[in-house]
Amino acid sequence: MRTSLKATLAAAVAAGALVALAPAIGQDRPESILPPGFGDPTPTPAPRPAPPAGTSARPSGTPQPTAPQPTASQPAPAASSSGAMIQPLPPTTPTGIAPVVPATTPAPVDPAVLAQYEMPESARRSLTTVGPVAAREGGLETDAFGDADGRYVETLMRRLTAPLPSRWMSILLRRALVSRVDTPARINGADFAAERAWLLLRMGESVAARAVTQSVDTDNYTPKLYQVAMNTALATGDPAGFCPLVPGAMRLGPARGWTMAQAMCAGLSGNPAQATPLIATAKRRNVASGVDMLLAQKVVGAGAQGRQAVTIEWDGVDQLTAWRFGLAMATGVAVPDALYASAGPQVRYWQALSPSVPLAARLAPAESAAGQGVLSSAALVDLYAAAATDDDTQGVASAAADDLRTAYADRNPETRLTALRALWGGAKARPAYARLVLTARAAARMNPALAKAEADHLVASMLSAGLDRTAASWLGSVPAGGDAWAMIMLSDPDAYRRLSYADLASYSGGEGDSALKQRMLFAGLAGMGRLNTGDIERAAQSLGVRIGADNAWTRALDRAARSGQSGTVVVLAAIGMQAAGWKDIPPEALYRIVGALRAVGLDGEARMIAAEAIARA
């Protein structure tokens, strides 16, 4: 681990009851931009003789030629063999003055047609396969949803309650949702992208959600995708993200949000003369009012030549919506903590990813986001490293940054261990899971022989960041039957033997709910195939774990696993983990989830989820 300070996070909507001013919009059919009669066969007029050298190409007193508009009765001018357009001169008046030709306003060009000329076919992205992360970059394979019915998968995603209690299940679900996968049958690719992005927003993954919406070409947007794209722009605090979408959205059905977006984009493009009347019209029509209108005006004023200052007062505002959050982040307006309490926890994760939030205000939401899997251990360390030199960071956060530096870099192992205890809340405290994530790589540097008393926390910390091989190296140094031993038994990637019923019975349950932990260990080992076959039924009966339970969810999960649909399995596994906390997740559900993930090749994630159950139950 380097001791030099790193750069802060470079990252940047709405969930549940959050209301964004987003419309439901459709699409028009492209129209031809060619003038009438353009494609009709036309006779080639005889060429005019070239004027003698040194003379004007036009007789003196002859009016300037004006090309007539081609009509069905008057053919369009044809090209000569030299490529120059030959156009007949208009008839002259007796006075030699050309008649006045009234100016005509060209018909508006359909953006869908214009897009065909702005982007070649080779640069267009198909809706057959959509997503920002390919398999070679860490995503799932393109056939992750196999022959599943797209409407069924969409329904599963829409009904999934997020955030989830498991960090590793959340990480795996994000991986599935951002993967470049084939669009399932009976669903539009843009709509499928919208459903994935909407679930990511509810999980707190604002940056990932924006990447999914941007993986679809704008001329392929559907009403649902327009709506979700507005929310992703708000969740990332980026109202400029509206601007490429405004023309299509306004054409298809201007709703309140897009009406305001039109004014904001005019202001952001340095055109206040256009933005001002749009804002005035919106006020007159009561498109928005109160703090919603003031925030939009503040965005307009932030553009070049905005020349207006708007003060935002939160008095009387009792609900934080995606609109208010996004425009406040974009304009640097601090949102009161009381308003965050009115929204879901995912909004705090959006805040952690927003670069406009001061470091001191980002540390607490960043820890929550790391515990949820939205931020990695390395990203959280980077944030604290930056906070260590930030003058505005409060004393407690600054002290934590100093302890973190000591835990990673001090040469004395005992000093490093003391710093870890301080970060965890004391020698006898049960650490918050986010702090285990923060100290993962510092824990990996500890010597097992010198830190046996803290083995449970150190192993849990390592596994929170996926350092499974490092944790496995502690096996000979931790007491059998403890939490550290149980987590290593579940997470070791090179486990070569199956455990017996006696091994399982030796586990005491460690800290927390010991009875629940015993059942979770059994469920994880059975799902991983690390128990002797004859002992599984015996342990299930003695511990009261109904691993043979059969219901609609287990049947769907088994069917998806047999078909090799890794994406469907991940979504169904997430549905099985919808709960307020680990204590509310049935052990038999963990057994089914771990087994299904292994069946579709997601062995690593299955091991991490099983070990997390011991660390957090």
Please state the structural category: mainly alpha
Distance between the termini: 30 Å
Q: Got a strand count?
A: 2
Helix content: 40-55%
Average pLDDT number:
84
Largest sheet: 2 strands, antiparallel
Large-scale geometry: globular
Low-confidence stretches: 1-102
Supply the number of helical segments: 29
Q: Give me the Rg, rounded.
A: 32 Å
Structure notes:
With 617 residues, the protein is mostly helical. 49% of the residues lie in helices and 1% in strands. It has 29 helices and two strands. The chain has helices at 111-118, 150-159, 167-178, 189-203, 206-213, 223-235, 246-252, 256-268, 272-284, 290-301, 322-331, 337-340, 346-353, 359-372, 377-387, 395-409, 413-424, 433-438, 440-444, 455-464, 468-472, 483-491, 501-505, 514-528, 533-543, 552-562, 566-576, 587-599, 603-616; strands spanning 129-130, 181-182. Strands 1-2 form a two-stranded antiparallel sheet. α6 crosses α11 (322-331), α8 packs antiparallel against α9 (272-284) and α22 (483-491) packs antiparallel against α29 (603-616). It is globular, with a radius of gyration of 32 Å. The model is unreliable at 1-102 (pLDDT under 50).
